[in-house]
Amino acid sequence: MRWIALWVAVVVAAGVGVGIGWLLWAGSDNAASGSGPENAAADAAGACQAWNRVPALSKVYSDDEISRAYFARVGGAAALAQSAAQLDHRYDALDKAFQNVTRRLQTLTVKGAGAVAAHDKVTTLCARLDN
Question: Which residues of 57-74 are buried (b: 16+ CB within 10 A; e: fewer)?
């Protein structure tokens, strides 16, 4: 039950964080003020930056502060990936990969070959964004 409450808090915090970021940096001369491909790319890049600091899904549910940070990063990254896909469908695969990861967190299936494959899929998609 504790993890469900934490998951809800992470999703809400991610949404608030995206909103605050938009309010702080939005302006007529700023790329964050629009809804075009540049903004989608920025959201995808932000998702991948957060994701790159999650070493493995199996590390998310440990009983320490670091695992909570991993959990929050996954939630924030998933929210940014979803935003990127809504703005530009070229990021649909990244969004779907993050949906798989968040489903695994919701069902506590963060260990084993499937979890490793889900982590690797997002990591591979993020690596392609850097090229």
Answer: bebbeeeeeeeeebbbbb
**Structural contact between residues 85 and 91, judged by C-beta atoms closer than 8 angstroms:** yes
* SS3 label, residue 92: helix
DSSP string, 70-91: HHHHHHHHHHHHHHHHHH-GGG
pTM reported for the whole predicted model: 0.72
Task: End-to-end CA distance of the chain: give it in Å, rounded.
Answer: 41
The secondary structure of 53-66 as a DSSP string is: T---GGGTTSSSHH
Query: pLDDT tens, position by position, for the chain (131 residues)?
Result: 666 666 666 665 666 555 555 544 544 444 444 566 788 999 999 999 999 999 999 898 877 788 889 999 999 999 999 999 999 999 999 999 999 999 999 999 999 999 999 999 999 999 998 76
DSSP 31: G
CA distance 3 to 77: 18
Q: Give burial (CB, 10 Å; 0-12/13-18/19+) of 55.
A: exposed
